[in-house]
From TrEMBL, chains A, B:
Residues 122-245 form the DUF2520 domain. The lineage of its organism: Bacteria, Pseudomonadati, Bacteroidota, Flavobacteriia, Flavobacteriales. This is Rossmann-like and DUF2520 domain-containing protein. Pfam families: DUF2520, F420_oxidored. It comes from the Bacteria. PANTHER family: CONSERVED HYPOTHETICAL ALANINE AND LEUCINE RICH PROTEIN (PTHR40459:SF1). SUPFAM superfamilies: 6-phosphogluconate dehydrogenase C-terminal domain-like, NAD(P)-binding Rossmann-fold domains.
Length: 255, 255
């Protein structure tokens, strides 16, 4: 049995709490948040508090709080030599106060409180300063059926950067598509199967091999037509830049 | 029973042939390709030919050939007043020779010969010059369980443009992610669940509401860190432009 204390009541904290509660091998000893109101609805399931002095003993203390709060909150903890992790993709492990043993448990997934997620689809990137602590994190990942990877700080920062491209930027392309469709009274639902299939395709095929369309075909007639159709200057620029990028990747000539 | 003749042996033609063959309500009378070798493996399932003079009579003739070949092939057909459609997103219906009744059957999906696809996930955009022909296309779509939409020429050109954003450009973002990960010896598999979840999320939530990350949070520290981490000038520019686009969409301040 692995015992944990969760600090924070946001997206990550809430999903972790649910995953831990489902597992027979994990026990949540305390759930802390500075604003206890956000934990009230869980008060029959777990010991909740907004007082750091009342945190119970546990194998792992998980700081699932905003990036900027990690340093201060870790310093405020009234104990030493326990095992502490944060959950951020972009914060160094050394940001945690060194009076405790330190590590990172970074879930590479987009987590929102109101969207359900199966933790077998949440890869966990693990990093610890001490080897024995890594074993504890591995056991925790296994207990909630998450795939896990030992990742260095540098790799984690890179992963976070890549996540921006394939999550935030991809989502913005969806948004642009939605906006352009709306303007012509086209139902965005028409495009949803294509969005899914595009993501499905690269599960078993490299994105390099999956590429199609006017850019890779060097179909200048269509590219020109599209640039003319686009009215928003920002979208025109995105079209040009990504077309150019595809052509560079595939050794086609420049626009 | 709807009878069809298919012209072309590429991605679209092959998927349509398979979908029609599965349906009890569609009969493929002839499958034509200029290069008959590509059809040889189907010769026990359907009448194949490379001779336009030998096409059998059918309710619909489907030209699933390259955009540039549509005009010439439609002119070369040795009959009149039949119902002819092409399958392109970017070619006008008027490109088809006017000696026949004309229409469009544009599948908004990424189709590759070797990837299986269920036609219930292939929305069909329908356009015809004559109203009675539209009914025929609707029946055909229903016979293969495809969702279908009546779409004007202008809407279809826009849809094709949107498809470039959410398919080709999204796939290029995956590719960039793959490349950046590879350079740091990070297994791309770690990122596949995030790719899927990003696509899943917008099936039930608008991309506007689904957005997260440093751009929308206006987290300049992280944005600067990422720009420093990116070595490729083209990728830096894509990062800047899409960050800016997210901030514009969400009324955040300019970079
Ligand atoms: N969401 C994701 O998809 C995701 C994925 C991977 C990693 N992460 C990382 O996980 C961490 C948490 O993200 P999240 O999405 O769960 O954030 P969130 O939903 O915004 O929740 C942030 C939590 O941090 C607490 N907090 C903020 N400032 C604090 C302070 N000064 N002292 C104490 N507590 C403070 C908030 O407390 P109040 O409730 O009192 O405001 C809240 O409970 C971040 O490091 C993030 O980078 C997030
Ligand atoms: N693939 C997709 O995801 C997709 C999605 C929506 C719409 N479309 C549209 O569907 C159409 C077909 O696309 P595709 O992906 O199936 O193309 P494809 O796989 O490249 O196949 C093209 C077919 O056109 C034939 N062809 C080319 N030039 C010809 C000519 N001058 N005369 C006669 N036949 C000729 C080729 O014949 P040979 O075999 O003899 O070379 C081949 O059978 C295009 O209009 C495309 O824009 C494609």
């Amino acid at each position: 049995m692995i015992s944990v204390v969760i600090l924070g009541a946001g997206n990550v904290a809430t999903h972790l709490f649910k995953a831990f509660t489902k597992s027979d091998e994990v026990q949540v000893k305390t759930w802390y948040n500075r604003d206890i109101d956000k934990l009230k609805s869980y008060k029959n399931d777990v010991y909740i508090t907004n007082n750091l002095a009342l945190l119970k003993e546990a194998d792992i203390y998980i700081l699932a709080v905003s990036d900027d709060a990690i340093s201060k909150l870790s310093s405020a903890l009234p104990f030493e030599n326990k095992f502490l992790v944060h959950t951020s993709g972009s914060v160094s492990v050394h940001t945690l106060d060194k009076k405790n043993r330190r590590g990172v448990l970074y879930p590479i997934q987009t987590l929102s409180k109101d969207a359900e997620i199966d933790f077998s689809n949440v890869p966990l990137c693990l990093e610890t300063l001490e080897k024995t602590d890594l074993k504890t994190l591995k056991n925790l990942a296994e207990a909630i059926d998450s795939p896990y990877y030992k990742i260095s700080t540098e790799q984690r920062l890179t992963l976070h950067l890549v996540a921006i491209f394939i999550n935030n930027f991809t989502n913005q392309l969806y948004r642009i598509g939605h906006e352009i469709a709306d303007a012509k009274h086209i139902d965005f639902n028409i495009l949803k199967p294509l969005i899914l299939e595009t993501a499905n395709k690269v599960q078993n095929m490299s994105p390099y091999l999956a590429q199609t369309g006017p850019a890779i075909r060097n179909d200048e007639k269509t590219i020109k037509k599209h640039l003319k159709l686009l009215e928003n200057e920002n979208y025109k620029e995105i079209y040009r830049l990504l077309t150019h990028s595809i052509q560079q990747t595939h050794g086609r000539k420049k626009l």
